[in-house]
Automatic annotation (TrEMBL):
Name assigned to this protein: DUF7691 domain-containing protein
Domain DUF7691: 1-201
Source organism phylogeny: Bacteria, Bacillati, Actinomycetota, Actinomycetes, Kitasatosporales
InterPro entries: DUF7691
């Protein structure tokens, strides 16, 4: 079974601030823009919805209003996908072909490559965790992680230090390609003060 990452360039603090904001105008903008996607998701998750999971729009409304949330952990995934939808509306999707799809422990393999270059401030495996805003229910899928502007700045400094020391170890070509894609994400964020990255594994 394969997984994939969706990665967005945005202001993480502002995006998290949308959760529980009660912004009806934003809610309706998303409902209008993503009407087909919402309907498609409802069709895909028809069985889960019949078992009590919220529809895509119901989940989105709960996220923007800070609840109420279903108490059933099996239904919490809908709130994660609703948060991902917020990120896709407010953020810029970044190239992810090195991570879409991927199998097995690929994220850890790329992290090992980053660590070999002495880049430890960020981790692609963090996108596999459940690092959602605190007010949202815990869920395994989708995974979510965040690279803050500060950590991105540190990671780029670490990379430059490794380059200056000319201590880059030999790495597999596909790992190098993935690392270069990560560095591209970070450079895009660094070019916009206050911007970071939020990624989702699904």
């Amino acid at each position: 079974m394969s997984s994939s990452l969706s990665v967005f360039l945005l202001d993480p603090a502002a995006t998290r601030g949308l959760v529980g904001s009660g912004d009806e105008q934003l809610l309706e903008a998303i409902r209008s823009r993503f009407a087909d996607d919402l309907a498609s998701d409802d069709d895909y998750f028809r069985y889960e919805i019949e078992q009590g999971a919220p529809t895509a729009y119901e989940a989105l409304r709960a996220v923007i209003h800070g609840g109420p949330f279903s108490g059933d952990e099996e239904h919490a995934f809908q709130y994660g996908y609703a948060y991902k939808r917020l990120c896709s509306l407010t953020g810029v999707p970044l190239d992810n072909d090195c991570f879409c799809p991927y199998r097995g422990d690929w994220l850890s393999v790329v992290d090992q490559g980053l660590e070999a270059l002495r880049i430890t401030a960020v981790s692609v495996a963090s996108f596999d965790r459940a690092n959602l805003p605190d007010s949202l229910p815990w869920m395994y899928t989708p995974g979510c992680g965040e690279w803050s502007p500060e950590r991105i700045g540190q990671a780029l400094e670490q990379f430059e230090a490794t380059k200056a020391a000319d201590q880059a170890p030999p790495l597999e070509p596909e790992v190098v390609e993935a690392i270069m894609q990560c560095l591209g994400w970070m450079r895009s964020a660094a070019a916009r003060p206050g911007f970071g990255i939020i990624g989702f594994r699904s």
